[in-house]
Structure formats: structure tokens, C-alpha cells
Design goal:
Pfam families: Methyltransf_17 (PF12692). It is a single chain. The chain has a single domain, classed as Vaccinia Virus protein VP39 (Rossmann fold, 3-Layer(aba) Sandwich), CATH 3.40.50. Helix content is 37%, strand content 22%. It has helices spanning 3-24, 41-49, 80-89, 106-123; strands at residues 31-35, 55-59, 75-77, 94-99, 124-132, 140-142, 154-157. Helix 4 links the parallel strand 4 (94-99) and strand 5 (124-132). The chain binds S-adenosylmethionine.
Length: 158
């Protein structure tokens, strides 16, 4: 598969997976959380899809497209552990989380996702959804939309 095809597959999985999960949690209260602001694409999509929810977003750096700069109060700048610990302290209630941290080194990315999973679990509401680019540990995996390959994106009900 070309890198272009692979990127398109990832973007499609993100958009369709987030849309699908947002519908599933429609009747549940809670905030959104995007782990990995990056360019701001998925954050922008989440705030557009869930205009009535607060969308928290994390990254160690603020380097997104100017149109996607989050409100200062919703942006947790720093390392993932610190950001998640701050949400735990604030007693945040997250109903839809998107996990998009990673360096591109599969083994390290999988290990980090497993290490962060217990912190993520502390802020998720019952009946919430996690849409993730990496496998997480300790959550119930569910089947996502049919056209998304199970090893491309991961879906968890909390
Ligand atoms: C793949 S990019 C996110 C792309 C973004 N979701 C988008 O749609 O544009 C991953 C981002 O996560 C951040 N990141 C990776 N590991 C992190 C960590 N442990 N703590 C904080 N930020 C991290 C990187 O700085 C990078 O901006």
C-alpha cells in the first residue's frame, strides 16, 4: 500500500470513526477529548461534530493550523501524563476521547498507549467511547464501522 493510500485510510478511519462514536454517545453527558492536537485536524472535526460539548485537547506543543488554535482553558499543553493527571484532578467527565499520540515507532507507541490507559480510564464516563489509533489496555474493544479495518483504528466502550 502506498503511503498516500495509507494516509487516506487513516484520515478516513478518523473521520468516520469519530462520526460513528459521536452518534453512539449522543444521549450521554460529558466532554470530548482529543489526545494529540498536532495540526488540529481531528480537534477541528470533533468541535464541528459536537458543537455543544466542551472539547479538551492535549499536546506537548502548540503547532496547529491557525484556524484550529483551541481556547486557552481547553488546551492542556505538556506531556500526556501531566495533562491526563490534570483532568483527573479536575474530575473531568469525558464521553468521547480520541487517542492520536505517537512517534511512528510502533512498539513505543503501543507501549505508551498501554501506559496511559489507566489514566484515561479514570476520566471516562460509563457508556463513553474511545476512538484510538493505537491499541489501549484494559478497555472493552468493540467493532467500529464495517469499512474500517480492525488493525487500522480501535474502538472501545467504557
Ligand atoms: C499524529 S499527531 C496528532 C495529529 C492530530 N490529531 C491531527 O489530526 O492533526 C500526534 C501529536 O501528539 C503529540 N504527542 C505525542 N506524544 C505525546 C505525549 N506523550 N505527550 C504530549 N503530546 C504528545 C505530538 O506533539 C503530535 O503533535
Amino acid at each position: 500500500m502506498s503511503r498516500l493510500d495509507s494516509m487516506l485510510r487513516r484520515f478516513t478511519a478518523q473521520r468516520d470513526g469519530l462520526n460513528w462514536a459521536a452518534k453512539l454517545v449522543e444521549s450521554h453527558a460529558g466532554d470530548g477529548l482529543d489526545m494529540g492536537l498536532g495540526n488540529g485536524r481531528t480537534y477541528d472535526h470533533m468541535r464541528e461534530t459536537m458543537p455543544d460539548r466542551r472539547i479538551w485537547v492535549m499536546d506537548r506543543v502548540l503547532q496547529c493550523h491557525p484556524s484550529c488554535v483551541p481556547p486557552e482553558l481547553d488546551f492542556l499543553q505538556g506531556e500526556a501524563e501531566e495533562g491526563l493527571a490534570r483532568l483527573v484532578e479536575m474530575d473531568a467527565k469525558i464521553v468521547l476521547a480520541h487517542y492520536d499520540f505517537g512517534y511512528g515507532v510502533k512498539e513505543e507507541d503501543v507501549a505508551e498507549a498501554a501506559r496511559l490507559s489507566p489514566l484515561i480510564a479514570k476520566i471516562m464516563v460509563r457508556g463513553g467511547m474511545i476512538v484510538s489509533g493505537q491499541p489501549l489496555a484494559g478497555f472493552d474493544q468493540v467493532e467500529g464501522p464495517d469499512h474500517i479495518a480492525p488493525d487500522r483504528y480501535y474502538f472501545y466502550r467504557t
